[in-house]
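S.,

Sequence below, as promised.
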Amino acid sequence: MILTNRFRSMVNSPRTIVSSQQPTGHRRWFSGYGLWTMVCGLLFLTSCGIYTFKDVSIDYKKFKTIKVGFLENKARYVNAQLSPKVTDNLKQKINNYTKLTLVNSDDASYVITGFISRYDVSLAAISNQNSAANRLTVAADITVLNTIDNKTDNFTVSRDFDFSATQSLQQAESQLLDDIVTQLTDQIFNHIFSNW
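The prediction came back faster than expected:
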């Protein structure tokens, strides 16, 4: 009990954190502002995405190479820029966040193929019996062949993007395209390589 009370007094007393020979201003800064600054700094660093894709799990002794096929657009409406941008962005992300070597050979450790399967606009919100917002739904069907273990993973990624009903689809596309590419790429990458 004595030890517990003594410990409490040490924690609550700024004098125990810094030598009593230092000026009071330093003692207050370290015990209050300094500690707070360090905590905020750590929170800031983690929220800035420094740890993004930290849980990528690949056995690099086993898996060395990867092929990413062109993700063709087979949706009813074709945005000509979407397929090349998603394909290139996925390659870039793999290059930046893994040690796998991108190759063009079908005997790569991983072979990724797929296509854009949906690119549809629907009504998202109504205001005063008028359309207030539209929703663009974009989806991709992906197949990952693990040639080392002879396993295949088929999955679909899909995202919704709302835009004002006063905009045409072409106007909305110009604003949303970068976000669409990023969101689809992140979902594909995380499904394949992360424990999410």
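The first helix runs from residue 2 to 12.

Coffee later?
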